[in-house]
Amino acid sequence: MEHNKEQMMVAALENGSVIDHIPTDKLWTIAQLLNLDKCPEEVVIANNLESKVMTRKGLIKISGKFFSEEEISKLAVVCPNIRLTVIRNYEVTEKRQINLSDTIINIVKCANPVCITNNEPMKTYFNVKDLTTLKCRYCGKEQSLDSIKLK
Ligand SMILES: [Zn+2]
User: Fold this and answer.
1) How far does the centroid of ligand 1 lie from the alpha carbon of residue 118, in Å?
2) Residue of 26, 32, 33, 49 with fewest CB within 10 Å of its CB?
3) What does R_g of the chain's alpha carbons equal in angstroms?
4) Ligand 1 geometric centre to CA of 149 (Å)
5) What value does the mean pLDDT of the chain take?
6) Ligand 1 centroid to residue 8 C-alpha, Å
């Protein structure tokens, strides 16, 4: 039943993107990250949907929106393991699990206030350790993915 309902929601989109499998506590962070409060297109935000994979999940559907790789990387940092579906002319043209890459470039702020990246106009680089910890390439400061601040 759930599957059919989901298919209907996706099918209703002519062109755009669907972000699925969002943890319920991350839904509004994602909405904020994507500036959905200012989005002029049709947006559907659903939360606490039943899910077979997770107990409850959130879903965001944005008409006319196609994410850049940079935006996708940001989404992955805030919310690893979400699923992205791209629709063109009512057809699913892409469906993929978004995973965190090994290197995160210029998305997250370093938690070390004296790190050079916080004091010079430059990009930040982090290596991802064990999917939960980021390590700054410049100062070596480690921070948990749960407590990151976006640049
Ligand atoms: Zn640093």
Assistant:
1) 8
2) 32
3) 17
4) 13
5) 89
6) 46
